[in-house]
Amino acid sequence: GQNIDQPTEMTATEGAIVQINCTYQTSGFNGLFWYQQHAGEAPTFLSYNVLDGLEEKGRFSSFLSRSKGYSYLLLKELQMKDSASYLCAVKYGNEKLTFGTGTRLTIIP
Amino acid sequence: GAVVSQHPSWVICKSGTSVKIECRSLDFQATTMFWYRQFPKQSLMLMATSNEGSKATYEQGVEKDKFLINHASLTLSTLTVTSAHPEDSSFYICSAGRYEQFFGPGTRLTVL
Fold first, then answer.
1. Which residue has the higher pLDDT, B86 or A3?
2. Overall average pLDDT of the B79-89 stretch
3. How far is A72 from chain B (nearest CA, A)?
4. B62 at A interface, C-beta within 8 A
5. A87 vs B93: CB contact, 8 Å cut-off?
C-alpha cells in the first residue's frame, strides 16, 4: 500500500505557529501536495514539493525530505479562519494522487 | 488559476434512481479527470480516473457498473450513480490538472 499518515486532530492558538506532519511510503514518489479544506467545501491548493527543502508562501511553508518520506506544513501567525482540515497528498508515478486521512486543525482564541 | 466546475452542487433523490454529475474544466483541456468520494469527517477516496476517449480506470472496490463514467470531450467528464441507495449519500468531488490538481466545488448527494 501507500499509507500516508498525518495526525487526526490538532489544536493551536491564534497568532501562534503550528506544524502538521505527514509521512508516506517513498517507492514511486513523484511529488507531494498540501491542500486546505473547509467543512462542506472542496480542497484548495496550498503547496507542492517535489525536491528536498522548504517552500515558503506567505504564512504557509512546506518542507520535504524524500529520503525520509516526510513532509510538514508550517502555518505561522495563525488566524481563526485557518481552522480547517489539511490534507497531505502524494503523487505516485502517474497523475493519480493518494490522500492522507487529513488533519483537522482547530484554532482557539 | 485553472477552474474546474461541477454541476449540480447538491442533489436529493429517491432510492433506486440514477443521478448524473458533471465535471468541467473551464479554461484548460483535461485528458484525465479524477473522481473522489468523501464521507463526513473522512479524507478523499479516489473512485476512478476518467480518461478522454477511453474507458475509465476504477479503484479497487468501486463498482464500475454502478458508477458510470463518461469522458466524451477534453473539458467534460460525467459520473452517473445508477440505482442510488442511501449508502451512496456522500460528497463527490472531481479534479483535473497536469501537475497541480484543481478541484471542483463538489456535489453533495443525498439519497432518501
1. B86
2. 96
3. 18
4. no
5. no
Q: Which residues contact B55 (CB under 8 A, 6 or more apart)?
A: none
Cβ contact A48–B99 (<8 Å):
yes
CB contact under 8 A, A99 and B1: no
What's the rounded mean pLDDT across residues B30-59?
91
Q: Which residue of A has its CA nearest to B10?
A: A40
Query: Hey, CA dihedral for B18, A38, B75, B56, is it positive or negative?
Result: negative
Q: What is the mean pLDDT of chain A?
A: 93
Q: How far is B18 from chain A (nearest CA, A)?
A: 23
Q: With 80 as the cut, is the pLDDT of residue B98 above it?
A: no
Q: Tens digit of pLDDT for each residue in A71-101?
A: 999 999 999 999 999 999 999 887 688 899 8
**Three-state DSSP string of chain B:** CCCEEEECCEEEECCCCCEEEEEEECCCCCCEEEEEEECCCCCCEEEEEEECCCCCEECCCCCCCCEEEEEEECCEEEEEECCCCHHHCEEEEEEECCCCCEECCCEEEEEC
Show residues of chain A in contact with B44, CB under 8 Å: 43, 87, 99
Once rounded to an integer, what is the mean pLDDT over residues B16-31?
93
